[in-house]
Every structure is written in C-alpha cells, then in structure tokens.
Amino acid sequence: MPRHRTRRPELSALVTAVAVLLAGSAAGGAYLVVRSPDDAQAAVAAVSSASSPPAAAVPSEEPEVDLDAELAGALAPLADGADMSVAVLDTESGATAAYGDGTFDTASVVKVDILAALLLLTQDEGRELTAAEHTYAEAMIRRSDNASATRLLEVIGGEERLDAANERLGLTSTKAAHAWGLTQTTASDQVRLLQAVCGTDSELSADSRAYLTGLMGQVEADQRWGVSAAGSSAVLKNGWMPRTTTGLWDINSIGSVESGGHTLLVAVLSRGHATKEAGITLVESAAKAAAAVTGAVGDPD
Question: From CA 134, how far away is CA 198, in angstroms rounded?
Fold first, then answer.
C-alpha cells in the first residue's frame, strides 16, 4: 500500500521559463547595439532567435509527501508521557500512514481476532455457528464480555490456532497469548485485521464479514469511544486494561469510520496512562490526527 500523497504542481517551472525569456531578450538587445552594420544580417537572426518563444515549459510535480512523517508531526503535540502506535488506511485513495512499530498488549481488541478465527473455523468445517457460539460472540463483541472471549478461544483451539488464523488473515507481527488480553500486536497489524474484516479480499467469507462488522457496529453506547471520534458510522472494538505491575492503563481502539466521503481503517494502541479517561482522550485525539493526515476529514458522530 502506498504511503505518500502527491501535491498539486507548482508554478515555479513556468516562472523560471518567463525569467529566461526576458533575460534572453534583454541580452539580445544589448548585443545588437554593439554590432557593426556589416553584421546586420546576423543581428536580424539574433533578434529572431531571442524573441521567438521558448518550448512550452512542463510544470513539474512537487515531490511526494511522506505521510508517516506528517503523522509523526501531528502526534508529537499529543504526547503526555504515554506510549502509542497509530496506523490508518484510506480505502478509497490507498493512502496509508503509520507511527510507532513496537508491539503492544491487545487488551480486548483481540476479541475481533478471536471471532475472526472462529468464523474461519466454521467456514473450514462447512457449518454455521452454534446457538451457544452466537451467544458468546455477541456478548464478547457488543459487551466486551471476558468469559465469552475465554470460552471462544478454547473453541478455536487456543493461542496456537489463533496464531494460525492470523497467518491466514495476513497478520505478520501478532503473537497470541493464553491470557488473551496480553496478546502482542502492532497498529499496522490491526489495520491488516480490519482489512480482512471490512474489505473484500479476505479469507473470511462475505457472510462472515457481515456478521462480524454487524456486531462491531452495535457495541454498547458506553463503549463507542476511540476511533469513532475520527468520523461517522463507526464499526469498532475497544480495549482497556489496567496493568497490575504498574497501575497504568492500556487503552486501544480499532475500527472503520466514514470521514470526508472516505472509509478509513484506523488503529490506535497505547499504554502508560494514569487513568482510563486520560487514555481515551489521547486515543481519540490520535484517531482524529490520523484522519487529518490522509486528507479525509469529516464530521464525527
């Protein structure tokens, strides 16, 4: 996926061409003043050459923009001592940007991953979800129920099978953990997961994708924060987890939003927050910055 946006051509080439023409005419005039009458024919030729229009100047395009650098610059003022990693993909233009390449705890955003792995399993087995699996899946995504996530991780065969599913889904930097909230991932990998869940080029069938995104579009009202700040019609899953070793919070948000007429896939992972509320504020500001960098800026819900 490209990571650059090309700006409009500048007028510098045209201005340069005009300056060359004017300088050439002035030099030709001075040349004629000092020529002798014997060289009249050559002088006429010089005037003709100096006054004839130059070849049309072709405006040159400004060098492509490094969106990763722009995103880093946009996020710099937001730093509050916490660590974060952000990735965004504009599915219409193909523009993408990423900040930070370290791994982070998934917390509850891994629940999207677990359900995607379960849906791959049912596809492979040629069956529908059981009634119990439906119940667990709905509770896990819409209410972020932890017991349901633990049960479905068991159903798919544990962390080893989750790793195998992730390989099929195109994730390259995610390592599942038995304590699923401690699964390690990157923001770029989470955007790859969103592509598999929300896009069409996926190991997941159309029915599986529709089922998963349908649940992500119906999370409970008090969980509709995070990447939803970057646009409207949010389809998302959030994760929040206080670390017992430090007392600081992991706050994550992944999802799809509509912004400026474009569909954006956004992932924000962060850690080291003194409070959950401080983490949410940072994540939402980072999501807005990511949307602005792509040039697709609209009104949030």
Answer: 20
